[in-house]
Amino acid sequence: MKIAALADDVTGATDLAGSWRGRGLRTVVVLGEPAEGDQLVTDGMDAVVYAVKIRSVPREQARLVAVHVGEVLSALDGVQVYDKYCSTFDSTPDGNIGPIADALADAVGAGRAVVVPSMPGNGRTVYQGHLFVHQQLLSESPMRDHPLNPMRDSDVVRLLRAQTSRSVGLVPLSTVRQGPEALRQALDDAQAAGSFYLVVDAIENSDLEIINAATAQDALVTGGSGLALGAQRSSAQPAPLRAVDGHRLILAGSASTATRGQVAIGESAYPTRPLDMARVAENPAALAEELIAWVRDRWREAPERPVLIHSDAGALGENAPTREQSEGVESTLSLLARHAYDSGARQILIAGGETSGAVINRLGIRYLELGDEVDPGVSWARGVALDPDGSGTEWECNVLLKSGNFGSDDLFVKAWDHL
Length: 419
Hints:
Elements: E1 3-7, H1 10-22, E2 27-31, H2 39-42, E3 47-51, H3 59-74, E4 80-84, H4 97-108, E5 113-116, E6 124-127, E7 130-133, E8 136-137, H5 156-161, E9 168-171, H6 173-176, H7 180-192, E10 197-200, H8 205-214, E11 220-223, E12 247-252, H9 257-269, E13 272-275, H10 284-301, E14 307-311, H11 313-316, H12 323-342, E15 345-351, H13 353-363, E16 365-375, E17 378-386, E18 394-402, H14 411-414
Parallel strand pairs: 1-3, 1-4, 2-3, 4-11, 5-10, 5-11, 9-10, 12-14, 12-15, 13-14, 15-18
Antiparallel strand pairs: 2-16, 6-7, 7-8, 16-17, 17-18
């Protein structure tokens, strides 16, 4: 294995793994903290990503997870550790990015770590230490009103300084453009001067390749999945992803701008039902039972046609969902996914990071084998559940886990052609 990562949610993990897969690396996502038996899956892989839902949990809980994962990864010889967080630095000044990075740094004995949230393919870039979402500063983008992590500051240096006691510095784009050797020297000089975390500007994929080359020997790097796009390309070609035959289902829990656009196109192509945003917070189980009956009827009419269930963003207007509504959506859709699997669904597209995590947990999936990207940061995977019900059996399905803001408008329609 060449590299191992801790990702702070499941869609971030598949995003990162998809980037490595695109570089020819054999990559697996392990859902949850390291456990006995993982080696049977990770042996022979070039990269492994441990996906643990720690982005929005209490700080000490996130730190303890990072301590455990760091201890396991530090015991691996010659493996670089990658701390993966959201490309929109999805963490308030009191958030978890700093504590997680600190715990991993302690575990692997790192002397420094770059901070690289940029992912140009999805419009995330950093210039003069400020994070942009397409042409907008992060603080002026729709992320400013995120229901869990509202982003009111675009200065990554300032955001990280609020979360760690370690010194945070900046390496500007002009230094990056001088090439890997000059950047490596700048990182060495900044470290010698007392900086530990170094936010590095990047606005194009070629910048990420330079950063990757300059940090190839570093024990720890941190960033979004974009930094993985600069990884050294493998000469091997991973085997194609195997499609699992069965019914098709789309579960869209995100109310992001990108997902709303995808839902709008999906509604014109497939049978669709919006979630009642009042009922999701009151009785998710009853609503899921009602929905699966409707879904089964649609599959009887057309067994191979996808069916779309989505959170009713239209009912929210310009308002973000409340925490109770968000949790109700996650619960309803995860229960529906379990019913759907029992009814023959084997290809499930899930939109929204929190929703993806809830569905994966409900299905009991432990490992994800990544396929090729459908869109930047979006890939199909083969999910494997090990003994989910105590029967001693294994089962599998294809899942596409999509962060709310990722993917083209026609993703819900074109995704099926990639299986």
